[in-house]
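Format notes (please read before filing issues)

Several people have asked whether sequences and structure tokens are stored in separate files. They are not. Every record keeps both together, in the order shown below: the sequence lines, then the token lines. Line labels are part of the format and must not be stripped during preprocessing.
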Amino acid sequence: MKKKLYLFYLIVPFLFILYTLNANSELKTDELIAKNKNPATVWLENGKKEFDKKNYTKAIENYTKAIKLNPYYAEAYNNRGLAYYHNFQYDLAMNDYNKVITLKPADPEVYYNRGLIYYDKGQYTFAIKDYTKAIALKPNYHDAYYNRGLAYYHNWQADIAIKDYTKAIALKPVNPDAYNNLGIIYYEKGMYDVAIKNYNKAIDLKSDNSDAYNNLGNAYYSKEEYDIAIMNYTRAIDLKPDFPEAYNNRGASYLKREETDKAIRDYNKAVELNPGYAEPYYNLACIYSLKNEKGIALLYLEKAIICNPGKCKPIAKNDTDFNNIKDDVRFQKLLRN
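Then the structure lines:
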């Protein structure tokens, strides 16, 4: 029976905002300027207030006014870049950070911020380059090591990612996310006991860490210790009741213990929480095919394929769980094309 292990990369990127605080922040813009406040600084501070309220478009307008008054205002470009980033305008954010780098080429935070944009755009090699520059300028830069590790991981350079997470932990031993992500890499290397050690450390540092409990369940599942896996998935669900992946994973563990009814209940809960989630539909299709309930099996298989055709179709073609329905014209039609 198939099971999808869901591994959670707990990314907590930190974007640096360069701004000045205004002791007279309740005064209107014209009143502040009348009090001989630098007009560009006033617009910067107004932009920061709008940013804090998540009014990113208004923040951008204010930062732009500051830049028009002072075309060399690095803080305004940096803050506007951050607002563009949160407004999902990555190219405009990139332009602003490029400008800041020309104005402040020795500022590690700017390279770090630009690295975050490259990461979100899936340009991991460029992200790594910027994080590396930030580290060169600031050798004990925890967040840069942490996020560079993430970029190395997604760039299929897991061994280097391990080194970066290890360095991040040395710089900040109380970061549970670094331990969790390190556990994921060891898990994918098949080093389940080392993964378990790291997941447990993440939980020690953050007792309500539902993702780490789910990942811990995955490791015990892969060790075929299904009772312990179920215990950890249940803990993840207790902490996060709307956690469809944990329900799916616990369902797979119940199935390994031949507790089919419990597995069906968990799979149904998973798709109730996330109707676009292919794996539990697929798992339900497998169960009902093995029970020779062809109509229900085909219904769930169709739903799985609708959710993720690129993944479910090729797997289903060679899945022996579907031997009872593989000759059915409806099954063949679902897998066509």
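For reference, the curators noted about this record: The longest helix spans residues 39-52. The chain has a mean pLDDT of 89.
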